[in-house]
Inverse folding.
């Protein structure tokens, strides 16, 4: 990560003197995520920055950056108010293209699941041999239930995420979980204890593509995206996806009809044959 | 003789899925068992375009009539340019789809006729989109690019994986070229040589203001019909203003011109295309972009794509109008690649279809 830091100029807000220098966490197609502090040196926060796109007309670029950031903040605020586990928004400057929000400790659900399954996700070529079923996979099953419940809570408030993957969910260690320091490893850090790897509270992150919608169709597509992402990221845990859906189905009144709609979406696939 | 053993392989390709009739001849040389020795040479590339009057589009019936009327002339020209005799040609390739029904049918029948007339040459039906992609790769040397395919009938972001060109994003309604063509009709911009080209030239005189148009991107998909509606409304406002009716003011309070509209439309739709391409690049982890299709010869689009690619440390590959715009040579090239792997379309199956998705083709010739 350190090598990439110098590659991009940071946003102006990060150029002021600080007790701890900001660090670049990830770089996506949309923007960059920095870790820095908010108001006091011991309160870490995440700063999401959408840099100007050199190819876009400046007026169009400013308009898009502003409206997208504002809508992301609006969605996050709505979720936070309704008790959906999402990071809290601290402060933002839509015109400058950045938003500061709560730093979520822990690691992504993807890392937790892979840790539990005891495999590195990068290693391909392994044949799909049937792994012996662990004697007690209850902690993993429970994680699937918690993910289902978190997605259900999100949909209940009328928000669809737009890009649900196991990378866009964090596992925040519980403060009362014995170890006070919890897991403070980085985003891709390695967690040694298997049970601890899949423990903690599920927090949904990255609402860059989120929209407000109450329709069964949009919710079902959201689940379908997660299902496909899950199957390609964790082929060995695919069978547990049913647990996730089962848990989702009991979170709000209209959830069962979303699951019925999901069947349609699966049958149809994402793309239809079209002619311009 | 077995085609895989031949050192020189020649195909004739016939394209006519829209308003261009193109016939070309390509030569593949080298040993098929060692791809590094294989080269492609364009022997001829002849095209004739059906141009409709300003304010109108090309209708299937008239376009098919154009193709029928010109086919023999263009085919003779292509053979003469290539300095070949009929016996040198190994196979006849034609566009199987997607495209407009009537023009596709005319060219499919003509290709079939050639095959029979010339002593039973094998026929190869080619997917038009795959033709564009393979030609773009051959001309630019882009090896594993994310492909933006933009034309009058198609708008897709494509990347190759496991024997198929997979569609990562596409338009949810009309194609970007269709949006530009229909907008050109609203302003009665000439269709000669192409409406998109004339919009591009007119846009160079605009740029004083950027008019507010909808921007519709959803993940890696996009939509153009709302933008077209709004652009047509603005064009109508402008006409009213020119007639002394008032209205049609830009953000600076001054009346806007057709050039301003062309500029704003290009800036908006191209920004959308570059954005979905960038997302696909981030998704598949590729640094190369290849732009193919008729809209791909727009230099402003190439410039914007270049700026995005440079920002990501990658590069953009594009071709000029000879290969971007529909042509016969791309059908010959993609068809010959398939033919070299043993693919053929038996004459009784040599149909064509308006709907033929890019990812339906099994790409046997790539690793």
């Amino acid at each position: 990560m350190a090598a990439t830091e110098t590659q991009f100029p940071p946003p102006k807000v990060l150029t002021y003197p600080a007790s701890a220098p900001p660090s670049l966490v990830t770089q996506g197609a949309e923007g960059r995520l920095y870790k820095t502090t908010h108001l006091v040196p011991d309160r870490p926060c995440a700063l999401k920055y959408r840099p100007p796109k050199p190819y876009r007309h400046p007026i169009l670029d400013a308009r898009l950056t502003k409206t997208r950031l504002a809508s992301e903040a609006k969605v996050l605020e709505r979720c936070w108010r309704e008790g959906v586990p999402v990071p809290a928004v601290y402060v933002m400057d839509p015109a400058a293209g950045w938003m500061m929000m709560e730093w979520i400790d822990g690691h992504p659900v993807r890392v937790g699941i892979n840790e539990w399954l005891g495999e590195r996700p990068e290693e391909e070529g392994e044949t799909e041999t049937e792994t012996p079923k662990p004697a007690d996979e209850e902690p993993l099953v429970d994680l699937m239930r918690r993910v289902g419940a978190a997605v259900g809570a999100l949909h209940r408030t009328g928000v669809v995420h737009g890009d649900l993957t196991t990378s866009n969910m964090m596992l925040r260690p519980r403060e009362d979980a014995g170890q006070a320091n919890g897991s403070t490893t980085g985003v891709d850090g390695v967690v040694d204890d298997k049970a601890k790897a899949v423990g903690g509270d599920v927090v949904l992150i990255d609402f860059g593509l989120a929209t407000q919608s109450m329709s069964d169709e949009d919710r079902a597509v959201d689940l379908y995206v997660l299902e496909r992402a899950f199957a390609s990221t964790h082929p060995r845990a695919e069978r547990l996806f049913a647990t996730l859906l089962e848990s989702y189905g009991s979170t709000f009144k209209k959830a069962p009809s979303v699951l019925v709609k999901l069947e349609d979406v699966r049958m149809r696939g994402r793309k239809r044959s079209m002619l311009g | 003789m077995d085609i895989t053993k031949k050192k020189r392989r020649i195909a004739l390709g016939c394209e006519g899925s829209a308003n261009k009739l193109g016939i070309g001849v390509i030569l593949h040389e080298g040993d098929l068992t060692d791809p590094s020795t294989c080269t492609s040479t364009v022997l001829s590339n002849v095209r004739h375009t059906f141009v409709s009057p300003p304010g109108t589009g090309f209708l299937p019936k008239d376009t098919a009539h154009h193709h029928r009327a010109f086919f023999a002339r263009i085919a003779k020209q292509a053979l003469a340019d290539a300095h070949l005799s009929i016996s040198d040609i190994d196979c006849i390739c034609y566009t199987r789809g997607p495209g407009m029904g009537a023009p596709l049918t005319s060219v499919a029948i003509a290709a079939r006729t050639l095959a029979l007339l010339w002593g039973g040459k094998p026929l190869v039906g080619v997917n038009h989109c795959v033709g564009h992609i393979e030609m773009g790769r051959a001309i630019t040397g882009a090896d594993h690019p994310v492909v933006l395919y933009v034309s009058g009938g198609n708008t897709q972001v494509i990347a190759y994986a496991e024997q198929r060109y997979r569609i990562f994003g596409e338009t949810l309604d009309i194609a970007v070229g269709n949006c530009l063509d229909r907008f050109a009709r609203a302003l009665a911009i000439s269709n000669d040589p192409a409406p998109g080209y004339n919009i591009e030239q007119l846009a160079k005189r605009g740029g004083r203001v950027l008019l507010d148009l909808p921007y519709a991107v959803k993940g890696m998909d996009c939509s153009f019909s709302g933008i077209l509606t709004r652009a047509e409304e603005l064009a109508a406002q402008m006409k009213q203003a020119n007639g002394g009716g008032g209205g049609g003011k830009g953000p600076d309070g001054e009346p806007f011109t057709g050039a301003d509209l062309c500029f704003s439309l290009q800036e908006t739709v191209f920004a959308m295309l570059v954005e979905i391409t960038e997302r696909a690049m981030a998704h598949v982890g590729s640094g190369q972009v290849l732009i193919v299709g008729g809209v791909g010869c727009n230099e402003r689009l190439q410039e914007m794509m270049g700026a995005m690619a440079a920002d990501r440390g990658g590069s953009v590959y594009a071709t000029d109008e000879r290969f971007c715009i529909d042509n016969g040579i791309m059908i010959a090239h993609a068809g010959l690649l398939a033919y070299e792997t043993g693919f053929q379309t038996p004459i009784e199956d040599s149909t064509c279809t308006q709907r033929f998705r890019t990812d339906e083709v099994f790409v046997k010739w790539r690793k």
Observations:
- Chain A has two domains: 2-102, 107-121+134-268.
- The interface with chain B takes residues 28-30, 53-57, 59-61, 63-64, 162-163, 209, 271, 273-276 of chain A (CB under 8 Å).
